[in-house]
Prior knowledge:
The strands form four sheets. The protein has a seven-stranded mixed beta sheet. The chain is an alpha+beta fold. Helix 6 packs antiparallel against helix 7 (261-281). The protein has helices at residues 4-9, 11-23, 32-45, 103-119, 143-147, 205-223, 261-281, 302-316, 333-339, 373-391, and strands spanning 49-52, 55-63, 66-76, 125-133, 156-167, 171-172, 176-179, 182-190, 194-195, 230-239, 245-246, 249-258, 285-294, 297-299, 343-351. It folds into two domains: 4-178 and 296-390, Aminopeptidase, CATH 3.40.630.10; 182-294, Alpha-Beta Plaits, CATH 3.30.70. The structure holds nickel (II) ion. Residues 101, 103, 136, 161, 361 line the site of nickel (II) ion. Nickel (II) ion is lined by residues 101, 103, 136, 161, 361.
Amino acid sequence: MNFxxxxxxxxxxxxxxxxxxxxxxxxxxxxxxxxxxxxDQLTKxxxxxxxxxxxxxxxxxxxxxxxxxxxxxxxDIDALPIQENSGVEFESLHxxxxxxxxxxxxxxxxxxxxxxxxxxxEELKGTVKLLFQAAEEVFIGSRYYWDKGYLSDVDAxxxxxxxxxxxxxxxxxxxxxLMASCDNFKITVHGVSAHGSTPHQGRDAIVAAxxxxxxxxxxxxxxxxxxxSLVVSVGTIKAGTQFNIITDTAVMEGxxxxxxxxxxxxxxxxxxxxxxxxxxxxxxxxxMEYKYLEPPVRNDDIxxxxxxxxxxxxxxxxxxxxxxxxxTGSEDFxxxxxxxxxxxxxxxxxxxxxxxxxxxxxxxxxxxxENILHMGAAQYAQFAADYLEQTAGGEGK
Length: 397
Ligand code: NI
């Protein structure tokens, strides 16, 4: 089974799906028109699809003609609060909401894969579940489908993202770390207010907060191994009401990114120590909230990666594969990867100077050359078919 030719034939259909989804861009958890469109298209094809009364997104299920394992393919479907300025003819019809992270591409590619796999379902040795996932951009969309048990029968999974550090039309399936964890924190410093001219009568929360911000960077430079990537960033600081008042409260929020469980695991405790002792040194007190959002995306199942790379080679030859620098961005597919150990995340390159597709994701000018979308559809479908073929004869979950 090789899906390259049929996927290319379906290119116009995939592009048309993408135009609809791009024009009807919807924010996280508001993907109602998007979900309705996907359900409608899948239903018209005759593919069984499950949608949810209390949640957006849907899961299509294609049962093969022969028994075997269950493999899940995932696309996210939400957009961002960005006013589009990409110059494409099919701009978002929703003011201030734009598919600036390519999730419209992912959904149309997965719909393309559904078309490909459905046509050849008699030959499949197992089941393919296609997850159209809500609310990736707020990092918590993926949890629902796992936590509610809708994916408990899944043996292996693949997610994919169009990616602008990879040349357009190249496929990247890389071993090891790929994207970072994302954990957020909020620190509140309490001092004592006073007149700005008599600081000795107060306990300055701004000075204590400033010292905390500087000291937090020693987590990266002096506690973490220099061989592990780690980012600790304070993104907001809110303090004070007027120039001549020593303020008694300062609130900071920030984010922590890491590629290994080790680097990720030591941050909270170290941060608490630094926050408490630095505040104390300044005569203040502090409290901290630390929220674990998403683990890193790591492609640690090398045998599964080999199946995905084999699928890409089978479709487009060895030259289609390429490597890319590890990203410090995050992706909530990692929640599913944590629960489904046989899982991987792939990139489909979309950087192309000739067509002006040079902008990063989350930029109001982000665009892609749509002629690559059928390749993403083929990669999804080929991986699923090859995984089922290569694991046939084994017991599913
Ligand atoms: Ni994204």
